[in-house]
Amino acid sequence: MDSKILAQLQRSAYLNFATRKRSGEFVPTPVWFAPGDGPCFYLFSAGDAGKVKRLRNFSEARIAPCTVTGRLTGSWLEVRAQLIEEPSEIAEALAALRRKYGWQMQLLDLLSRLGGKLERRAYIRVEPGPTEGWVSAS
User: Fold this and answer.
1) How many domains are contained in the chain?
2) CA of 97: how far to CAs of 18, 32, 74, 109, 123, in Å?
3) Can you tell me the distance from the alpha carbon of 123 to that of 13, in angstroms, rounded to the nearest whole number?
4) Which residues form the domain of 9?
5) Percent of the residues in the chain that have a pLDDT greater than 90, as a whole number
6) Which of 2, 103, 126, 135 lies 20 to 30 angstroms, CA to CA, from 62?
């Protein structure tokens, strides 16, 4: 992975995650994310969110560093995104998110548990796209 792009992503608290609709249009959403082992990132969402439904149809996605409001602070990157089903990888994703966001993630987990939403959460792995490495998308 390009070190400049990696540094830009690691400085960012939010990632704009764009998933593809059937029409081919991408729908961007700012999300929390954390680096995993190797060239991947983990993120999470409500299990019934639109991005999760779109991922069931298309693994092609785009990511870019952004602000909390979704304003891009870097270039789009073509990626593959996949819903995680394996409990051990879900645990790895959750641990990575807790390392990055600390007490904020723990508080969100507590509120989600109290609201009965923690068990319905979806975890997503994002990896380099179909071409070699990370590629900037225009």
Assistant:
1) 1
2) 19, 8, 21, 11, 10
3) 17
4) 3-137
5) 56
6) 103
